[in-house]
Sequence to fold (343 residues):
Amino acid sequence: MILLLSLVVGFSVIVFSPNFSDAESESKTFVTHSGAVVQTSGEIIDPLYTVSTVEFDPMEFLRDFNYGKVSQLSDGSVLREFTIIAEDDKIMEVSPGIFYNVWTFNGTVPGPTIRATEGDLLRITFINNGSKEHTMHFHGIHPAGMDGVFEPVGGNGGKFVYEFEAGPVGVHPYHCHVMPLEEHIVHGLYGVFIVDPKEERPPADEMVMVLNGLDTDFDTENNFYAANTIPFYYQHHPIQINTNELIRVYVVNMVEFDPINNLHLHGNLYKYYPTGTDLVPSFYTDMITLSQTERGIMEFEYDFPGKYLFHAHKVEFSEKGWVGIFLVNENQDENVQESDYGT
Ligand SMILES: [Cu+2]
Fold:
């Protein structure tokens, strides 16, 4: 009883002895768990923009393909050279007022979409300017020493050159493969690697959608979901496409913590090529389900103009940001077959 009483008294002292320090007006610095320094003006964490703030435009990312610096080798094959720089101290406003410590390849989440043709030689100079060890692990076929798993690259300028032939044809993820893996992935160290067939796919309006989750409070559950990082972005900024024009979406699921994700398209169905490895579609559907790093290619055309949603049919995900709109415009092109988008 005495113990209980002293507990109550002690609690009361804590609760009823407010100590209005001058914290509210004091400018403080706040060090994130990864060591980034953020400024705050009081007890509420309201980080200000700093030089480390990441600006990311999902509309620009959508159709941005990095083919590297191209040259020809003496045997006639194509060499594609890329430089990828990892950092882990950047802050990004992922949603109004929500600041998140992103770990980036070349300054963005996702990193650049690396694109090559099957059989090209890729030479990727990886520089780690982060504070932790990082790597680049590509899905696909390559020698063991190029797998980005057993060759951790030290921070503060560590370097490694990955060199391998692009293959197989398809859409593949790349990501950091340093433990704890979930932490390195969920902070944003991933991107898309497209391997085109030697005989090109038909011309299309091509785009990349990386499905991602954001665990902004570090409790190993996602607080937000998105296509290309910013929740609700393509709902507020619809993706403009044309009627009677082939649309090709390279979709990669990088959501951690939740075992599945999915993608539903409104007012239409799409041909679906799992992993993009086969040139003949496996399904004609309006709904695919994807586990971690599962991916594929969607192809469709709209007959009728207007607004059409695309979103996770896992409603929790769509209500937390993974939803967008295709705004289909009447095609003004007399001869749509000659259009040459995205290649
Ligand atoms: Cu890493």
Remarks:
- Residues 1-24 have pLDDT under 50 and may be disordered.
- The helical segments are 2-16, 58-62, 181-186, 233-236, 315-319.
